[in-house]
């Protein structure tokens, strides 16, 4: 009784809605634990909450063919057959992407050709990432627009054979659907219009006469002053004594013997060792007098410890506030979705 379709359900594609899923996969779903525990006695109002808990999409996996929760909820929707308005709200929902994916695949299974193109083609502009589980149980990233393209073009998605629909060009020829304009064509048109405007602006610049240039006046800094003969004589008859003394000092520094260098280095090391030793001795004497660390260092350690404790407490409070705000936001979004569907809120 729990696995039967509801009495007032309409036939889809001339058959029982549950028969759209293959028998072997359907029996595996009936035997799995998620179906028995989570999908038992689900209604159209309660299936919304289960759909918001989905974390990935997929079909069956493993050697013994286990179904994923996404496939179990899809079969449950085929069994209870919710109203079309609920499915449309699933597809239009922007907060929960897996709810949108569930509504899209259900519309592809049960909807007409015009409904599939009408409600699924706007989802080409949704580029969010979805997690998909493959046959080996490994996860892969797929985007929402890729998933919608598979629903409209492929024969099998999530291990379910999709019913055939009419080609889009046939519906366009019969004036059932308007010709679709993709976003890429719109972008190409925008780019072409921008290029035409740039070309027109360049032609206008070329056609315009060049502006007249005013002759530059020589700046006063560029004017040369006549050099006096006294200055020339002073440059020529400059005494080379200072130059020679400096050059001698540089040569002495360069050609200093390595023995002098080693002596200077040894003196520097001894002086640094002595100063370091004296400093260490003073610190040890100070610590022995005042019992280890002095008062200043002890107060500094206490302040640092209290500061660390305050930072730790602040971080804990911030984490708690973030978790509360995230849960409140999820509850608010779920209540908004339930309100659009005409259902009672989860919490006041």
Automatic annotation (TrEMBL):
Localization per record: Nucleus
Sequence ranges of Acidic residues compositional bias: 187-200
Region of interest called Disordered, as start-end residue ranges on this chain: 187-348
GO cellular component labels: spliceosomal complex
Keywords: mRNA processing, mRNA splicing, Nucleus, Spliceosome
InterPro entries linked to this entry: PRP38
Coiled coil: none
Ranges annotated as biased composition (Basic and acidic residues): 300-339
Function: Required for pre-mRNA splicing.
Protein name listed in UniProt: Pre-mRNA-splicing factor 38
Source species of the chain: Candidula unifasciata
